[in-house]
Specification:
This protein has 2 domains: 5-43 and 288-395, Aspartate Aminotransferase, domain 1 (Alpha-Beta Complex), CATH 3.90.1150.10; 58-284, Aspartate Aminotransferase, domain 2. Helices cover 42% and strands 14% of the residues. It contains 14 helices and 13 strands. Bound molecules: 4'-deoxy-4'-aminopyridoxal-5'-phosphate and glutamic acid.
Length: 396
């Protein structure tokens, strides 16, 4: 049967593909140490699950308004004002089936075919694919380990052309964990206002910030910046709710209306029961976040300590999220265990998986050849065993 050109040229999500490959190997009886998917290993907190059960039993099992229940939009606004002191109205909120869907909505609602979208590299796998899906053009701006993987205002300005519509910003970042310093964000905001560029600020890791780093929302730099900003967030990472599929945008009202129209034709609405769970997450006790963060923090210290001790690896310390993104290029050209000669990050990941049964994601998928990503959103036992295996593999 025919499949469209648009879909034929689309690469599958590399993170999801890497996880599937690891799962396949495990099904064949191999004990795989898995660090692929970026999703909290914790179960969703009890009070959130209970709210969902109550919603089901109370008959909240029907369609809802296209971009979410008014009460959930109020919860989103209340939580944002509580956490960051920035006020939004429910008319500026649209709730979707996860943050990934929210990003696709934003690109569909704001971009014309042929528009350019600036994406600092390394970037989360789906960014460039989603831009291409709406017929827009990803313009990649390279950042380096030395700059902590932050795009400067000069780099941003230099990438802007008459066709530039939007900047996709992600701090804390997937895959690097880098957190833009406040002054760096302010400098980008100035350029966005001067050149009238929309900034899509993906703040899905806002609650996962480590000691010594500060998160500031892009919406907090004054009205002119806010008028050009679309915030992306959701419950997936902060509340360990990846499977519930709830994400949202905070955007000027005309964009929210456009997304609402789009979603009414596309998916009708996000899952009703999940919306009640999301309300419980946002309005309920927030200490579940700090409990999970404490565990992420100790895993982070452990992982970074171990990686520092392995010769030939380098990285910029992640200030947030749950990824270690390290440079393995000094091992290129070597023949590693199993006899495979390794020329790039994909070779590296394949050799590591086949010989040491450790599953990482290649940096190529994030626009960063030479690097690999390790998600430490998994148990300390697996982390310890995985790093032992990685160390042994590279020492041979
Ligand atoms: N943005 C970033 C940077 C992410 O890492 C993820 C996680 N997949 C998403 C968006 C999408 O989140 P969700 O699971 O809510 O679709
Ligand atoms: N964001 C996660 C990751 O990067 C989940 C997988 C995905 O949606 O790509 O691994």
């Amino acid at each position: 049967m025919h499949t469209s050109k648009l879909v034929n040229q689309l690469a599958p999500s590399a993170t999801i593909a890497a996880a599937a490959k690891a799962r396949e190997l495990r099904a064949s009886g191999v004990d795989v140490l898995e660090f692929t998917l970026g999703e909290p290993d914790f179960t969703t907190p009890e009070h959130i699950c209970e709210a969902a059960v109550a919603a089901m039993k109370d008959g909240h099992t029907h369609y809802t308004p296209a971009t979410g229940l008014p009460a959930l939009k109020e919860s989103v606004c209340r939580a944002f004002a509580r956490d960051y002191g920035v006020e939004y109205t429910p008319a500026e909120v649209t709730v979707s089936n996860g943050a990934k869907h929210a990003i696709h909505n934003v690109l569909t609602a704001c971009c014309e075919p042929g528009d350019e979208v600036i994406i600092p590299t390394p970037y989360w796998v789906s960014y460039s694919a989603l831009v291409e899906l709406v017929g827009a053009i990803p313009v990649l701006v390279e950042t380096t380990e030395e700059s902590g993987f932050c795009m400067t205002a000069d780099q941003f300005r230099g990438a802007i052309t008459a066709k530039t519509r939007l900047l996709m910003l992600n701090s804390p970042s997937n895959p690097t964990g880098s957190v833009y310093p406040v002054e760096a964000l302010e400098a980008l905001a100035e350029v966005a206002v001067e050149k009238d560029i929309i900034v899509m600020s993906d703040e899905i890791y806002d609650k996962l910030i480590y000691d010594g780093y500060t998160f500031k929302t892009f919406a907090s730099f004054g009205q002119e910046v806010r008028d050009r900003t679309i915030i992306i967030n959701g419950v997936s990472k902060a509340y360990a709710m990846t499977g519930w599929r709830i994400g949202w945008t905070l955007a000027p009202e005309n964009v929210s209306k456009a997304i609402t129209k789009l979603q009414s034709q596309q998916t009708s609405n996000p899952c009703s029961v999940s919306q009640f769970a999301a309300m419980a997450a946002l309005d309920g006790p927030q200490d579940c976040i700090s409990e999970m963060l404490t565990q992420f923090q100790s895993r982070r210290e452990y992982v970074l300590g171990r990686l520092r001790a392995i010769p030939g690896l380098s990285f910029a310390d992640p200030g947030g999220a749950f990824y270690a993104f390290f440079n393995v290029s000094s091992h290129f050209g070597r023949t590693l265990p199993g006899g495979a000669s390794v020329h790039n990050s994909s070779d590296f990941c394949t050799a590591l998986l086949e010989n040491a049964h450790v599953a990482l994601v290649t940096g190529d998928a994030f626009g960063a050849p030479g690097f690999v990503r390790l998600s430490f959103a998994t148990s300390m036992d697996i982390i310890e065993a995985g790093l032992n295996a990685l160390e042994g593999f590279l020492a041979e």
